[in-house]
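Subject: Rieske domain-containing protein

B.,
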Amino acid sequence: MKFLLAFLLILSVSFGCNKTKNHPVPSLPFDTEINLTLPSYSNLQNVSGYAYVLGGVKGLVVYRRGPNDFVCFDRMSTAENAAECDSGLLINPDNFLVLDDPCSDAQYSLYDGSIVKGEVEFGLRQYITVWDGNTKLRIYNQ
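Prediction pasted inline below.
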């Protein structure tokens, strides 16, 4: 009886474990630096400012959460078949803190990359940001 219980326990653990899925947005290595004094990044000089930046898979969006706090996300959606979509995520015209996926009903938070709406499992891929305290913001992926 003990053998049967042990066998059933091992069997349930083996087949009952949730397989860890990989994030659907590829992790492409890159390292870029932007100058916040350039006109295309001038919105990032103020808290709650955002800007689109080249890099990542479908481009990047950088958001300034606080005086010394920047976040950066890939603009590729985590929705199924997102790689086939030509467009990257776009800022919602009615709420700048929401990123819309033009190819699905998915929406994501610009504040932290979490899922706001849609049939998706993963939030956005986030990249590392390092601000020099002055004009340069480094964005990279390990």
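Residues 30-141 form a domain with the Rieske Iron-sulfur Protein fold (CATH 2.102.10.10).

T.
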